[in-house]
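Inverse folding, one chain.
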């Protein structure tokens, strides 16, 4: 071990970032089709997106009337997982429900 010597100067270089970049966010969207039941869409919204029954019905009506509805806004990984979960559940139940994500 070396002893402390006042003649030795050490320089500490540290760099801090004042700004932290937020990750990009993605909207998860459900698309209307002629085969998926409204009840199933409400069930998906409550199960996958943790919506209340009232919120789920409101989003389902947007999907039905406007052709598309926003289920939520999440990071890329969460959005991708939710889209895949919706597609898996829809296939298991025999529905062609389309779910996509797009950068906000």
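Residues assigned per position:
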């Amino acid at each position: 071990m070396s002893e402390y010597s006042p003649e030795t100067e050490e320089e500490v270089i540290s760099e801090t970032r004042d700004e932290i970049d937020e990750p990009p966010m993605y909207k998860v969207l459900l698309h209307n089709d002629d085969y998926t039941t409204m009840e199933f869409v409400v069930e998906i919204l409550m199960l996958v997106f943790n919506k209340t029954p009232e919120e789920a019905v409101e989003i389902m009506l947007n999907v039905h009337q406007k052709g598309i509805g926003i289920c939520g806004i999440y990071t890329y990984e969460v959005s991708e997982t939710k889209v895949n979960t919706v597609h898996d559940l829809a296939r298991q139940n025999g529905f062609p429900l389309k779910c996509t994500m797009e950068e906000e």
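The chain has a mean pLDDT of 91. Helices lie at 38-49, 53-66, 76-92.
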